[in-house]
UniProtKB/TrEMBL annotation:
InterPro entries: DNA_mismatch_repair_CS (IPR014762), DNA_mismatch_repair_MutL (IPR020667), DNA_mismatch_S5_2-like (IPR013507), HATPase_C_sf (IPR036890), MutL/Mlh/PMS (IPR002099), MutL/Mlh/Pms-like (IPR038973), MutL_C (IPR014790), MutL_C_dimsub (IPR042120)
Residues of the signal peptide: none
Keywords: DNA damage, DNA repair, Endonuclease, Hydrolase, Nuclease
Molecular functions (GO terms): endonuclease activity
Keyword Hydrolase: yes
NCBIfam families: mutl (TIGR00585)
The protein's role, per its UniProt record: This protein is involved in the repair of mismatches in DNA. It is required for dam-dependent methyl-directed DNA mismatch repair. May act as a 'molecular matchmaker', a protein that promotes the formation of a stable complex between two or more DNA-binding proteins in an ATP-dependent manner without itself being part of a final effector complex.
Top-level lineage group: Bacteria
Gene that this polypeptide is encoded by: mutL
Species the sequence originates in: Algoriphagus limi
Sequence similarity: Belongs to the DNA mismatch repair MutL/HexB family.
HAMAP family noted in UniProt: DNA_mis_repair (MF_00149)
PANTHER family: DNA MISMATCH REPAIR PROTEIN MLH, PMS, MUTL, DNA MISMATCH REPAIR PROTEIN MLH1
The protein's name: DNA mismatch repair protein MutL
């Protein structure tokens, strides 16, 4: 019997391997764009016909190839980018497997024109189904042009599997956007069926974002930067109000390579927690820089997935970077992006927009209480002066006990004026009043401030509780008649697990018998008539948020307690209470938004008021 095993002919082996690299027109475009970038191009033009099914052409002004290299480029594993297996760990260029051109040439009709600047003549190579049809000298501009025609012309089954033109075009635009974002200094154009879709001049990242996603983004970008010894994060996030219901404009790059990471996406969402609705997705374009030896980019053939050797640190840095940017965001509302989209340099921010990057810490110190202790922000100082008294508010309809907080001295003027713009400050002119027992209206030197009392109070309490949880030192008030709360087995389990956090918040709780707890004390700042109700409500709220939002435990507890204990719409407030509330709001780290991403206040500038009257 004769032997059965044969080596596959190269053309078939190439076709099979091509399946990995070229799944659709967009994946070929990605490879061609990356080659152009690797070649040092400063201008890259893309021409697409029939969503790439008929033609994808990438023209660059990069370094070009010699005739021999041009021929070699189509050989499998031919690459100029690595020489040994060690190099694999220090890859900075895009391509490195030397597979792309060979794969593309196996499943399409390819025409390559290339010339190095110093050569007189260039090279033309025509190749289809891995077979070189023609190679000759040609007069051509410096750089390289690769045309890929009739993708899968020789693999009808795969051609039939291509999606409709709109779908394939969407993939093409996606790939184009990713590369264009990563290289804002390179000029790009994208033509489809002779229509120009993008014309992007080389420039700053902010310009590139606006060029790709539209003018609306000009006023929505917040710079984001966090530098640590392990990883640097730089880029832009969208303001919370620009978040969208559909996921989409979210980009992570690691060492300038686009990656998908639901883990890191979670870090960003987590940082936006409380600022946007749970079903909204924030915009972001974030670049991580990390020593290539700490990552493995080769876990997936199309290379959009990545492994970090220290995922948790990367997560923490990303989250901190975004939180930081959001926190600083209320400090810079006066920053007018429309004046100049190109802040300065790609990363070089205007001193006014600089976000506490000069804060000194190493990446290990994220979220540690020490950090806060060492740097008490304005609002922490504010609380030092707050006295608490309780009295019955006779004027309120339901005769509910109302907390009176005496307004401390102007300890918070600084944070107010940061928020309101340097020239204005919150002037207490004695003209603070309530509308519908729902909104607080306060006069400022530059207009009117309208505050949603419940949203504002929730924000204040949330930040306070979060801080208490971090410092584990929430003050407690003793229950006069400690109630026993019977719990379901599930709730008992939950509460047992939350004991340390509940104690940090100021709950004094101990297990009582089989499935009950006794509440000996509750947080000092909460007006309680019924400790049991407060506690049960808190657990209920905690479970709700947990289902809805999958929050981190502490965030959830802080939110839940804030929601349960905040003052409500319809509650009448005294002058002093209104002032205190407004003062405390602007001492918050994130005063602009309530817990559901709703606004806490709006400003009505004098100029707008004038304009109502045509002045
Ligand atoms: P890789 O990019 O992984 O090295 P490719 O198959 O994409 O593999 O390309 C093979 C080689 O061809 C590259 O290493 C490079 O030397 C050369 N090459 C490809 N495209 C270009 C281009 N646009 N300009 C200059 N050289 C190129
Ligand atoms: Mg390549």
């Amino acid at each position: 019997m004769s032997d059965l095993i044969q080596l596959l002919p190269d053309s078939i082996a190439n076709q099979i391997a091509a399946g990995e690299v070229v799944q659709r027109p967009a994946s070929a475009l990605k490879e061609l764009l990356e080659n152009a970038v690797d070649a040092g191009a400063t201008r890259i033009q893309v021409v697409v016909k029939e969503a790439g099914k008929q033609l994808i052409q990438v023209i660059d002004n990069g370094k070009g190839m010699t005739p021999t290299d041009a021929r070699m480029a189509f050989e499998r594993h031919a690459t100029s980018k690595i020489r040994s297996s060690e190099d694999l760990f220090s890859i900075r260029t895009f391509g490195f497997r030397g597979e792309a051109l060979a794969s593309i040439a196996a499943v399409a009709q390819v025409e390559l024109k290339t010339r190095r600047t110093d050569d007189e003549l260039g090279t033309l190579i025509q190749i289809e189904g891995s077979e070189v049809r023609n190679q000759e000298p040609v007069a051509t501009g410096p750089g390289t042009s690769v045309s890929m025609k009739n993708l899968f012309y020789n693999v009808p089954a795969r051609r039939n599997f291509l999606k409709s033109n709109p779908v394939e075009m969407r993939h093409i635009v996606e790939e184009f956007q990713r590369v264009a974002l990563a290289y804002s200094e390179i000029s790009f154009t994208l033509m489809q069926n002779d229509m120009e879709i993008f014309q992007l001049h080389g420039g700053k990242l902010s310009q590139r974002i606006v060029g790709l996603f539209g003018k609306n983004y000009q006023s929505q970008l917040v710079p984001c930067e966090e530098l640590t010894p392990h990883v640097n994060v730089k880029g832009y996030i969208g303001k919370p109000e620009s978040a969208k219901k559909t996921r989409g404009e979210q980009f992570f790059f690691v060492n300038n390579r686009f990656i998908k990471s639901s883990y890191l996406n979670h870090a960003v969402s987590n940082a936006f927690e409380g600022l946007i609705q749970p079903d909204q997705h924030p915009f972001y374009v974030l670049f991580l820089e990390i020593d290539p030896s700490h990552i493995d980019i080769n876990v997936h053939p199309t290379k959009t997935e990545i492994k970090f050797d220290d995922e948790r640190t990367v997560y923490a840095v990303v989250r901190a970077a975004v939180k930081q940017a959001l926190g600083a965001h209320h400090v810079v509302p006066a920053l007018d992006f429309s004046i100049d989209v190109n802040f300065k340099d790609k990363w070089d921010q205007d001193p006014n927009t600089k976000i506490a990057v000069d804060r000194e810490y190493s990446y290990k110190t994220f979220n540690t209480p020490e950090l806060k202790k060492a740097n008490p922000s304005g609002w922490e100082k504010l609380f030092e002066g707050v006295q608490r008294t309780v009295e019955i508010d006779k004027s309120s309809n339901d005769e509910e006990e109302t907390e009176i907080l005496t307004f401390p001295s102007r300890a918070n003027t600084e944070s107010e004026s940061k928020l309101l713009g340097s020239s204005e400050s919150l002037e207490n002119t004695g003209t603070t009043f309530q509308v519908e027992n729902n909104y607080i209206v306060a006069q400022m030197s530059t207009g009117l401030l309208i505050v949603d009392q419940q949203a504002a109070h929730e924000r204040i309490l949330y930040e306070r509780y979060l801080r208490q949880l971090k410092l584990a030192q929430g003050p407690s008030q003793q229950s006069l008649f400690p109630p026993v709360v019977e719990l379901s087995p599930g709730d008992f389990e939950l509460v047992s697990g939350l004991m340390p956090e509940l104690h940090s918040l100021g709950f004094m709780i101990s297990v009582f018998g089989n499935q009950a707890v006794v509440i000996q004390g509750v947080p000092a700042d909460i007006q309680v008539r019924n400790e049991k109700e407060l506690f049960e409500g808190l657990i209920e709220q905690f479970k709700n948020f947990k289902n809805e939002l999958s929050l981190e435990t502490r965030e959830n507890l802080a939110r839940s307690l804030a929601r349960r204990s905040s003052l409500k719409r319809g509650q009448k407030l005294k002058d002093q209470e209104m002032e205190t509330l407004v003062g405390q709001l602007f001492a918050c780290q994130n005063p602009n938004y309530g817990l559901s991403g709703n606004k806490t206040f709006v400003k009505l500038d004098l100029s707008s008021i004038h304009s109502f009257f045509g002045k």
